Backbone:
């Protein structure tokens, strides 16, 4: 038991790891995940609109993209983007590995968000688009002003859930060899574990990930519940009560005089 505690909960190692994890690792993990989700949202909305097109030649490239990046393991995508592109002479970010890390996680995120947005847009009643077109709006304008905002609102919990996934997948960018000041949580913990042969730093990194993901998971659940309750409340508010005929309003049988 003493060896177990020394390996995973060494007080000295925890005290040495936490300051760096909280100041450098936490900041860079949020930076990578935040930029990746922004990139993924922009590209995901575009891909969702392409997937909804009635033209096969428009849908096909988007479908291939989504199937490929959802089918590949995330570690393979990170390696191909972060290590493969610079080796092939394609260096949009120069020698800065942080840019390739954001690009890799963002490309993966976009594939999943495309399906999320597609389902959210399809959940919007078709009459919304028809009504917008009847008012003289063009199809792109109706989608941008009427349909897409409602579709995004439908998938807010799933969008927040994808951000949690991006936070966890940011650990894979340690493969790219981030420089000093760019290291994320896992990279810092893995370096300390390799140097000390003690896993306490990894436990500290896990605690930092939980510090991010557990509150976000709680917020996602609350948001999902609130949207569901709001939808039911709106339906109840807009429902038109069915009048119940009273005894006085029920027509009586005709009398002999009325006949």
Residues:
């Amino acid at each position: 038991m003493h060896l177990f505690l020394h390996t995973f909960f060494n007080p000295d190692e925890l005290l040495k790891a936490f300051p760096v994890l909280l100041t450098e690792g936490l900041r860079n993990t949020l930076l990578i995940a935040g930029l990746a989700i922004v990139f993924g949202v922009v590209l995901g909305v575009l891909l969702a609109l392409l997937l909804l097109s009635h033209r096969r030649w428009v849908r096909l490239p988007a479908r291939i993209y989504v199937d490929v990046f959802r089918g590949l393991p995330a570690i393979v995508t990170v390696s191909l983007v972060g290590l493969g592109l610079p080796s092939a002479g394609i260096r949009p970010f120069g020698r800065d590995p942080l840019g390739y890390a954001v690009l890799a996680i963002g490309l993966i995120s976009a594939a999943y968000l495309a399906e999320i947005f597609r389902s959210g847009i399809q959940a919007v009643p078709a009459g919304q688009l028809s009504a917008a077109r009847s008012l003289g709006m063009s199809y792109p304008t109706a989608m941008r002003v009427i349909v897409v905002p409602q579709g995004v609102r439908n998938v807010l919990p799933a969008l927040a859930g994808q951000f949690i996934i991006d936070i966890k997948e940011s650990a894979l960018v340690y493969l790219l060899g981030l420089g000093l000041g760019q290291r994320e949580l896992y990279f810092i913990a893995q370096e300390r574990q390799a140097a000390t042969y003690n896993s306490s730093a990894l436990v500290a990194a896990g605690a930092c990930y939980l510090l991010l993901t557990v509150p976000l998971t709680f917020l996602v659940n609350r948001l999902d519940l609130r949207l569901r309750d709001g939808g039911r409340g709106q339906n109840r508010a807009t429902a038109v009560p069915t009048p119940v005929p009273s005894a006085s309003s029920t027509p009586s049988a005709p009398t002999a005089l009325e006949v």
